[in-house]
Specification:
It contains twelve helices and twelve strands. By secondary structure, it is of the alpha/beta class.
Length: 342
């Protein structure tokens, strides 16, 4: 077996000291090395077949250069862009992501976080937050660096990166009002999610301010079948609405499936709006009017905050709200009161 190439070996080839080689091969410190020297070091390391020894480094400086990323459902298309944003930023700073999917289970979340702690990750980015999130509370009590993304975790004072839910919902309600809709239903997510509470509150307030009739129908999960079940129940009560605002695109997908099955034509009879603009939402039948959320950007900002925290900066438990935008497609059309002043 060939002997492992060391920092000293690379240093001898380039003619610099070992510390300079270490800085040049670490993305987070490379900028302090002369660019030409750094380029020579990287080329020499590749030619010699040098591989960084993270185990030895972790014993020396008490860091593993790994970050645990906890998401609620990898099959939900909004999360892969977030993870991509996280990975893109962290990789530039020498960190590796260890991903855990909890399948919306608090028990699975506990197990995943315990497993990642046992692997000595340096910190966490958590997208599974709920009102009473015992796993996130555990991390806070342990003093673990954490940044929340998409959802908050109640009173646990960690930084949060999220989209502007209220602004998105206000834009949706204004859009539907302009189209002549006065009776609107909001198909909401589980009540223990911060996104659900923010969007529901914004919906009721926007309807009140606009003089529209708005009501809320809550679901127990953010999946397409939950939206389908919700719309089945609403249609069984009698259709007294002309537009539906779903809390997520997946719920909207279920709403559309139920409408088709019941012979209700969208958007001619009922307009439907989603939230998130997840990949392929424009391919729904019809293409979904929705609120575009900067998913990859949210992941990148969460990673940026965590790197600052891991670098020793004391972050306040602030909320970074990122801008959203209404995307109009074919699932919304003129309602029965279009053109009528009110």
């Amino acid at each position: 077996m060939s002997q492992q190439v060391t920092l000293e070996d690379v240093a001898k080839v380039v003619g610099v000291n070992k510390a300079t080689v270490s800085r040049a091969l670490n993305p987070s410190t490379r900028s302090i090395v002369n660019s030409q020297t750094a380029s020579r070091i990287i080329q020499a390391a590749e030619a010699l077949g040098y591989v960084r020894n993270f185990t030895a480094r972790s014993l020396r400086v008490q860091t593993t250069m790994t970050v645990g990323v906890v998401i609620p459902d990898i099959t939900n298309a909004i999360f892969p862009p977030m993870v991509r944003g996280i990975e893109n930023y962290l990789s530039q700073h020498g960190y590796t992501v260890l991903l855990a999917d909890t399948d919306e289970s608090s028990d699975a979340e506990d197990l995943a976080i315990t497993s990642l702690l046992e692997r000595r990750v340096d910190g966490f980015i958590v997208a599974t937050g709920t009102e009473e999130d015992r796993a996130v509370t555990k991390l806070f009590n342990l003093g673990t660096p954490v940044v929340l993304v998409n959802r908050g975790a109640g009173k646990v004072p960690y930084p949060l990166v999220t989209g502007d839910d209220a602004a998105g919902i206000r834009a949706v309600v204004a859009h539907l009002k302009d189209l002549g809709h006065r009776d609107i239903v909001h198909v909401a997510g589980p009540s223990n999610f911060s996104t659900t509470r923010a969007r529901t509150k914004a919906f009721l307030r926007a309807c009140q301010d606009s003089g529209l009739n708005g009501r809320v129908f809550a679901t127990t999960m953010l999946r397409a079948n939950a939206g389908e079940v919700a719309m089945d129940s609403l249609l069984a009560e009698g259709r007294d609405f002309t537009a539906v605002v779903a809390a997520t695109d997946l719920l909207a997908l279920g709403v559309l499936k139920s409408l088709r099955r019941h012979g209700v034509v969208c958007p001619e009879e009922v307009s439907v709006v989603g939230f998130n603009d997840m990949p392929f939402s424009e391919e729904f039948g019809p293409g979904l009017t929705t609120v575009r959320v900067p998913l990859a950007g949210m992941g990148e900002e969460a990673a940026r905050l965590l790197v600052r925290r891991l670098g020793g900066e004391d972050l306040a438990p602030s909320v970074l709200t990122m801008p959203v935008a209404l995307v109009e497609r074919n699932s919304t059309a003129r309602g029965p009161h279009y053109g009528q002043a009110r």
